[in-house]
Specification:
The complex is a heterodimer.
Chain A (H helix, E strand, L loop, with lengths): L2 H37 L17 H8 L1 H34 E2 L3 H13 L2 H14 L6 H7 L1 H17 L3 H9 L4 H12 L1 H17 L2 H6 L7 H6 L8 H22 L12
Chain B lengths: L2 E2 L4 H25 L2 E3 L5 E3 L3 H8 L1 H31 L5 H11 L8 H10 L5 H9 L9 H29 L3 H9 L4 H29 L3 H7 L10 H10 L3 H34 L3
Antiparallel strand pairs in B: 2-3
The chains are: A mainly alpha, B mainly alpha.
Main location (chain B): membrane
GO biological process, one term (chain B): transmembrane transport
Pfam family, one (chain B): BPD_transp_1
Chain lengths: ~270, ~290
């Protein structure tokens, strides 16, 4: 191949790359840009505003509606509870699976895998009946608990892969220095796998924040999270601007988290069976 | 290396107990209910395997299964080449790629019931870009009554939603390839294709299996988006496995719904087991230096 020909293909390749990535960004961001734009437009006649006018009225209306404000609180409460609960049971389990083999470990892995991929619809009815008996309906605690079903397995996978990247000698030297297992966890292991904990938090947050099947069935009359509060806005006349403003707000925490874990997001997925 | 130590169960116990209460208890209850005709929860009759016989004997089950399998196949055929292609386009370890990864991760944090709302709004004739564009081009896109359009719409939405996951995982697999491998290939004058086929693709296998499992299960049991877009229509053309189950639950057919749930759970367990087998084979291959 002559030098000019090679030069030409490399220009062609760069062009292809730029066009491809530009199309990708348009495809991904297009629907979101539309959402953000509609959230700033008045879509129902409000007091003195004509339809179609640019305005902040939708955002004002969110904070004027106590149900919507409460739903923001409910969502944040159940997601935080879920992340804390998930990590506190997943961390020791991930450590055990990474450092030891034991009777039944493969069956445990199969169980984790199965629960991660069991669709919520399959369990929704019975979970509703179980939680009704345990008095956990219509409260953020119920949602936080049931979301552990798919988040605990994810957190265990991600943390196991980060812990396995640390050599055993690291643990042994801490034990030789006389640290207890609990002390080792808090003072040595957790700081060493901080990026892994961040990635695990991110994925737990995401999967819990976006889930709607369990959230719907567990909060039929109260304690509604954002997702269900938006659903309740649909009616005979739907203020689509308000719906979009609420959607935009529901994206803020997720996007902020993406920004925080952007450097590590692609590292947590080396899985072992 | 891992040593054998059964005391490790103590560390796994909290997670195991939590999952047992949240998952195993409802599963056992599902099995129990599937053998009863349930009028109210106090008033029920033993019917044995009747629900299972009805279910296995009904052509609707196989039609729904066929639709779900077709949907999953299309999802995999579209999203995997596309996701791997995107990952190959991204330059390794730069701020540019981290920007693109961030952009692609955004649809993952959109609540699932918002996704159809966003897309329906995009298609609306008076506010949506896409709706106005289609009207302007005089193209008709009838996702309510034209089955092919409904399918295409669902596939586009699903791809928008999940392409980021596939691309991020593919990118993480590609980043784990040591630079000397690629340099050696370049020195040997390997073509772009053979570099991909013999160096990059084998290294992607582990992460892509993970992506495949997540994508296969979520698309096989797609519920929220499909229900919101067309509730299984037109003419049941998008009535997937989960939609049929959801319908039974909302009709308070507890017994048959429980039997169906139990059957679906067996399917899930089977897929998880297949996946574990293939991962384990992958691990042994690695240990043998292959």
């Amino acid at each position: 191949m002559s030098i000019t020909a090679r030069h030409k293909t490399s220009i062609g390749r760069t062009l292809f790359r730029c066009v491809g990535l530009a199309l990708l960004v348009v495809f991904i961001l297009g629907p979101l840009v539309q959402t953000i734009m509609v959230s700033f437009v008045s879509t129902l006649p409000h007091d003195d505003l004509a339809r179609g006018q640019l305005t902040l009225v939708n955002y004002r209306n969110i904070f004027a509606d106590p149900d919507l404000v409460a739903s923001l609180g409910n969502s944040l409460i159940y997601v935080s509870l879920n992340v804390v609960l998930t990590l506190s049971v997943a961390l020791p389990a991930a450590y055990a699976l990474s450092r030891h083999s034991f009777v039944g470990d493969r069956h445990l892995m199969l169980l984790l895998l199965t629960f991660r991929i069991t669709p919520p619809v399959v369990l929704s009815l019975l979970v509703f009946l179980l939680f009704a008996r345990l008095n956990l309906l219509n409260s953020p605690v119920g949602i936080a608990l049931i979301h552990c079903l798919f988040n605990v397995p994810i957190a265990i996978w991600i943390l196991t892969s980060f812990i396995s990247a640390i050599p055993r000698e690291f643990d042994e030297s801490a034990f030789l220095d006389g640290h207890s297992r609990a002390g080792f966890f808090v003072r040595f292991l957790m700081p060493a796998i901080a990026p892994g904990i961040g990635v695990a938090c991110f994925f737990c947050f995401v999967f819990s924040w976006v889930e709607v099947v369990f959230a719907r069935i567990l909060t039929s009359t109260g304690g509604k999270p954002i997702t269900m509060a938006i659903q309740a806005l649909f009616g005979f006349t739907t203020d689509i601007g308000l719906v979009m403003a609420m959607t935009v707000i529901s994206l803020v925490p997720g996007v902020a988290l993406i920004f925080f874990v952007r450097k590590h997001i692609s590292k947590g997925f080396q899985v072992r069976a | 290396m891992r040593n054998h130590y059964n005391g490790a169960w103590l560390l796994v116990l909290p997670a195991g107990l939590l999952l047992a209460v949240l998952g195993v208890v409802p599963l056992i209850a599902v099995l129990n209910y599937s053998f009863f005709d349930i009028f109210t929860l106090q008033d029920r009759f033993w019917v044995g395997a009747e629900w299972y016989q009805d279910l296995v004997g009904s052509p609707d089950l196989y039609r729904a299964l066929a639709r779900s399998v077709l949907f999953t196949t299309l999802v995999v055929l579209i999203q995997f080449p596309l996701g791997i292609g995107i990952a190959l386009l991204l330059p390794k370890g730069t701020n540019t790629s981290s920007f693109f990864l961030m952009v692609m991760a955004v649809p993952l944090v959109v609540p699932w019931n918002m996704i159809p709302i966003i897309w329906l709004n995009l298609l609306s004739q008076d506010l949506g870009f896409l709706g106005q564009f289609l009207t302007w081009m005089d193209w008709s896109f009838d996702y309510k009554f034209n089955a092919i359009h409904t399918w295409a719409f669902l596939l586009i939405i699903d791809t928008w939603h999940w392409i980021g996951l596939v691309a991020i995982l593919a990118y993480s697999g590609l980043s784990s390839i040591p630079a000397p491998y690629m340099q050696a290939a370049a020195i040997d004058g390997a073509t772009r294709w053979s570099t991909f086929r013999y160096i990059q693709l084998p290294k992607l296998r582990g992460v892509m299996m993970m992506a495949l499992l997540l994508r296969v299960m979520d698309s096989l049991m797609i519920y929220t988006e499909a229900f919101a877009i067309n509730a299984g229509g037109p003419n049941n053309a998008t009535s997937f496995l989960s939609l049929e189950l959801g319908e039974q639950i909302s009709a308070f057919d507890y017994g048959p719904a429980a039997a169906r749930s139990a059957l679906y759970f067996l399917l899930v367990l089977f897929i998880a087991w297949l996946f574990q087998l293939s991962l384990r084979r992958n691990d042994t291959a690695k240990e043998n230096g292959l």
